């Protein structure tokens, strides 16, 4: 930040004709704060001071004129071609996707786009420079183009309705950061938001509900009320609002891709048109449309026809994900369809519907886009796949010659926590830090360069189960969308997280100035290493916020201005510590929660572990065989890679190597019901000297209610005065397949 002030100062000195050393100017160049990082920047020596009023050439894009106004830069149009001090033009010879060249030199600013899109992207770059430097622009030449054509953001407006004003603001920010596809998830089990003239009951009967809280609504209710019901919660867009969103997006070079979900995630539909379900009526568990009935196809073709009239996008997203497939097997219509069409299972039945809908879209000159489940039962011939359940779907589709958009839950799901969950608003249980988003490379190494051509780009998704309103949505989107911006725009080879982090720290206050409710970079990352030779743990801390001061204690107390300052050297412990770390600005603690992290260099660390019967579930291995005795404790977030998960009971034996005095054995478990993670019914600890005969030292029944939907942590603690070589821990999991129990460590003292 200091640096900014100093570069301003250089600029001023140069404009006044004061000599500045080359090293000072080199320092200037390091401070370029552009996001996304351009392909190439060549710095010159000198600063061009924009005259006031600034004369604009006739080719000046409206985006630039409006941007200058927003930045309060005095500009006036000039009638004469290319006489403007900011000269804009298009040169189709400029190579590269959405390419532009921006030169700032003694003769002024020249912006050349290879196309209209390129000119638009160059304009956004120039506006970022003007925001950073004001009217005193350092000499430079930027040559830039996009890595991927598809640079997307998805917003779910069904679980919680988001007003169109929020979307207009989002589009502005997307454009600033060169994101160019807005995927509008318009309909789902939380409410129907698309206004249909032919089916008016959709918005009259399926767009409002009484229950705002998602857990309660989804677990107990799933019912909608009529639009006019007093106190009803929800909403839908008018066609005029949709036109306004599309027109604003088009001006910014963003394509709006509408999504109409089928055949699953259609619960809300049956409130308005129950005849589209297999049972012919609304039921709590009906989420898929009936594929047997012709009326289902008439309905979707009618709706899609209205969608197509409104949205110019080539792509129409038809959903396709997570069909429950629970009623098709017992539906006479669906069964008849399967027989007639020779479809052997539910997947082929679903695929029949997707292929038929694709034929309809193609007949209207549009293309089908769907979540990766559309691969099941055979992919529609010209479909493009959005790979969300990891990258596998995308890899399979690309190998089969289909286009792909990467949007894996592991890296770009913005409904997940962006730091440890304590002190954060409730989120879906996953873990997607800024760094995690930044680390994503949409081109899987498993694919050949030829196959990479099918990867059109990547997209971040914001599902809104727990995102209550527009402010909250912004908090989840920003600044993680800035990381996405660089993932999809900048060359992979020149990307660096530390370099990016410094620039994000510059952009967060800028976003705030524009009224965006941005997540204020409040994570302190705790990285723990175990040294089994020295029998100690060392903890390294790093902050997203820069510059920052981290102060900490190791006895569980809240850090104060006089607590130890973290200076980059690891914190070392051979015992048990409860680390509490917090960000400070001098003597003042920042108004951000502290992180708490317990470590124990306990007696079982590194000892041999035997899984009796089952091991962990492949999706949640944590550190594998040694995970339960590696000293690494889970954070409050189930997907942090430190929690080991099991769909069976857990039964493990730890061999301490020799008979050892034991004072305490404990293990912590997690319940995160929305992710199918439950407390074990009970936990038992048994001891043995020979590994053959075990005696129980106690069994504890869980105190956690199964009805609790918020994440819960429970420690099963067994204080004792015993001697033994083998410790066996059993945790019951009596639930059916697909229900997990999770633990992070068996601590032995
Ligand atoms: C999805 O997250 N169900 C596409
Ligand atoms: Zn049916």
TrEMBL record:
GO cellular component, one term: membrane
Protein EC: 3.2.1.52
Alphabetical keyword list: Glycosidase, Hydrolase
PROSITE patterns per UniProt: FA58C_3 (PS50022)
InterPro entries hit by this protein: Beta_hexosaminidase_sua/sub, FA58C, Galactose-bd-like_sf, GH, GH29D-like_dom, Glyco_hydro_20_cat, Hex-like_dom2, HEX_bac_N
Annotated F5/8 type C domain residues: 643-749
CDD domains with a match to the protein in the record: GH20_chitobiase-like (cd06563)
GO biological process assignments: carbohydrate metabolic process; glycosaminoglycan metabolic process
GO molecular function, one term: beta-N-acetylhexosaminidase activity
Entry similarity comment: Belongs to the glycosyl hydrolase 20 family.
Name of the featured protein: beta-N-acetylhexosaminidase
